[in-house]
Amino acid sequence: MELTRLINSIDSIQVTGNVQRKDILSIAIDSRKVSKNSVFIAIEGLKTDGHRFILDAINQGAYAVISEKDTIPSEIYNHANCVRILVKDSRIALAQISKAFYNNAADKMQLIGVTGTNGKTTTTYFIKNILDEAGYKSGLIGTISNLIAQDVREAYLTTPDAHELHALFHEMHSFGCQYAIMEVSSHSLSMKRVHGLNFAAGIFTNITSDHLDFHKDFTNYLGSKKILFDSLSESSFCIVNADDKHTDFLLNDTKAKIFKYGKKESADFLITDIKVDLNGTEFLCIINNNSFKISTKLIGEFNAYNAAGAFAFGYCLGLKPEDIIESIKNTPQVPGRFEVVKGKTKYAVVDYSHTSDSLEKAILNLRKVAPQSNLITVFGCGGDRDNSKRPIMGKIASELSDFTIVTNDNPRSEEAMYIISQITDGISKSNYEVVPDRDEAIRRAIINSPENSVILIAGKGHEDYQIIGKIKTHFSDKETAQKYLAEIK
Length: 489
Hints:
six-stranded mixed beta sheet
């Protein structure tokens, strides 16, 4: 696309240099990925300021540079025949230029945004299956993977950076997708990755304390979620959890039509009679005095909420209730989301629960579905992430489980034993041990536990890797559980 058209798509303060009718071939925010005829956007990040690498980008052949800071002499731009574009906000400029570069593909589909602390991934999978079985082509962007219809692409961030996000939208539209369902993270809202997107629907699952390493406090975290609902237009609708105490705050300034689901009598989609066992979850959803029985293979009361939110979406879209119910029933197990791994005399449950609230719900749900079983919880906490939740999670695991093994998650650059010590600071009981090696921790939990035990392996879920320091190695909780359960004859 010609640079002149791209410049017209952004809110620029000043444009200097020889702006020719030259085609731009790529957009980059990493100077190492700049090639001839690229546009480089300098962004001040959390750890590195992209403005430091403008010279590198120019030397790599960038034809234009977008920046917030006027730090490079104009002579350097002129000598390299590079256009300088000064903007107030580089992140907004990135979103604007990315949308234009990919021919506004996002505006040619119905965008469905799902936000919340827990349940985003499962809810998006329910919705995608509802749309697919209704005959629509859809794409999905989220934590586990990105899907162009059924074509799987690896996901690196829950919500990608704007230029990668719009590239996915372009692929989806080119493939004929009519809907794009996406997890909308608090990071992406705060960092303006989804700026300028026109969501047809916004869905809110719940909110509990998380990501405070980034947001600094819960008020900021909550405020970031509110951005999605503030952006909705009068022609859109939102589906929100009536039972979450923060819902009303999130909806204060929305223009969208509001529908609520939950156990509260005031909910538009009333959840009642929840039944959970090892075969799945079923419940009744009551709308306008009409009762619908909904079942899913997914286990846990929280999955009744996720399914109810998805059902409400399909219902508001105008799909037949019986078709929505069948689609929810047919939705396959979401990898690493309360995923049961069965052995002959005991079983493991692999779950992504990595917050205090999600860990508590996972343990309490296992107590309901297997009340007679001995429950062992194996978990750790990720490094370079919110550390305030560590002692709280230790306390929850110890008090609600029969036995807890504290181990490594992804320590990343933090000292592993320091993370573990912060977890154990919250434990006052003696029903735990520390086993830093995650493989050994899972082995001990499975091999040493009595028959008919349930082993909850929490924190990593679908992840098939472990990051210790700067080294990333293959590691899967599910594969490890399968290996040791198979040893029990």
